[in-house]
Amino acid sequence: MVKFFVAILLITTAVNVFATQSFDNCILEKVKTSTKKQLVKDIINICQLEKEDDFKKESGVISKRIAKEREASQNRHMLTAHKQNYLLPVTYTSNLNLDAYSFEQDSAEELKEVEAKLQLSIKTQLNSEDIYQKGDGLYFGFTLQSWWQVYADEISAPFRETNYQPELFYLTETNYHPFDGNTGLMFGIEHQSNGRTQLLSRSWNRIYVNFLFEKENFALSFKPWWRIPEDEKINIGDSEGDDNPDIEDYMGNFELGLIYRDDEIEYTFKGRNNLKSDNRGAFELGVSFPIWGDLKGYVQYFNGYGESLIDYNNSQQRIGIGVLLTDAL
Predict the structure, then answer these.
(1) Which candidate in 34, 59, 191, 201 is catalytic?
(2) Rounded Cα gap, residues 176 and 174, in angstroms
(3) For 135-145, how does the pLDDT look when each residue is reduced to its tens digit (9 = 90+)?
């Protein structure tokens, strides 16, 4: 595990070096064309101002949210939203994954296609001073998702599945401004599991890079990942070994995210694909809208594989409606 953290630090150092190249090139060019009366410190000041101008692009939805979070992070006990936080009291799935619970036949038959879904996601910034460049940050995040059989009174309304996702990531802006927008990079390592044992156990670990782009009320993220290999499971009932060796065949190798905000209405899209001939993956659409005060309504539609870890190889459509506590941005 230490090797992976070292790898992340090396990559972020490389990004920092790349970000300073334009400043160094500026100084070299000014020296070549300068007059004898110009002092070195004057050249440095000119290039510094040009560098600052490069960053003075109009802040988009990502930058505005990060600025608010950095202000809040002055309180060391402050936790902020990471991903969306929502409660969908009513969701319906087209294909309930009964095969996963086949060894509990009696209770599996009582599971309902209608259930509740919720997501809670928080993060906190670990650094109080800049690490490599101005405004960068090291964060710890945690996301919990649950699918609750609240309408299955016959089996005491259990939580059918809960996924836990802790992650450690580094976030920094870059000097790259395509289409007069702003960009950033995230480097992270994350674990995801459902906390179950034996036949219901599902988990995996990933290292990822996330490229971020924003312009005004539009934001895009492209997040490819590499799964950290696990030992092969010798017997299906063993507690040790890979519980889901083929998970990438269904969950894919990257996630593409799009967000657009129109006044108080926010539209989101997330898509995954394995880039193979079978074209497995998934997409999720969401729309949030004001209903009362700061409370927002939220409608979510999912289609494909891997809505939850227990369903990683189960294709389904799910639609739900509820309330959104915090927006994506």
Answers:
(1) 191
(2) 5
(3) 899 999 999 99
Burial bucket for residue 149 (CB in 10 Å: 0-12, 13-18, 19+):
buried
Give me the mean pLDDT over the 86-97 stretch: 97
82 is catalytic: no
* Per-residue pLDDT at 194: 96
* pTM reported for the whole predicted model: 0.80
DSSP 203: E
User: Domains of the chain, with CATH numbers?
Assistant: 1-56 (no CATH), 59-326 (2.40.230.10)
Check residues 132 and 25 and name the one with the higher pLDDT: 132
Three-class SS of 161-200: EEEEEEEEEEEEECCCCHHHCEEEEEEEEEEEECCCCHHH
Q: Identify the active-site residue in 59, 193, 201, 315.
A: 193
Q: What is the DSSP letter of 231?
A: P
**For this structure, is 77 an active site residue?**
no
